[in-house]
Amino acid sequence: MSNKEFSSDVAFIEALAEMLRKNDLTEIEVRREYAEDKVLDVRVARTVQAAPAPAAPTTTIPVAASPAPRPAEGASAPQDTGGDPAQDPGAVTSPMVGTAYLQPEPGKPSFVAVGDAVKEGQTLMIIEAMKTMNQIPAPRDGTVKRILVEDGAPVEFGAPLFILG
Known about the structure:
This protein is mainly β. The protein has one helix and ten strands; from the N terminus they run H-E-E-E-E-E-E-E-E-E-E.
């Protein structure tokens, strides 16, 4: 390429960069053909910093009291422990994201119920993740004090599932 072609290419690329900025684009890609065997492929891109999400408004709206939802069969009624159940020393938390199943299969009895004594390694429930059934064992001996999930409910990593006493 001659110096003249080179300087026109630089001006062309600068014009593309200006167009990128003016139109708030993140990328432009063009092909400039001079002749059959002389082609200039140009891709101009820029990184855009994501703006921080605006803070949610903190407006309190009074609502009428509604009856408490009934716990799932075998689950205990929620108790006000004054804190996060995940912080309870007897909490068994989810080791993965998935769907919780309290029974080995539909129509069968639950693995455990509130008040049951469990041994370390005993299956408490199953979490289905990516079409794989993962047994969740009791981390230690104890008694099931609370069941914090419903059968068929989605669970997140680290979510409290049971409280053992």
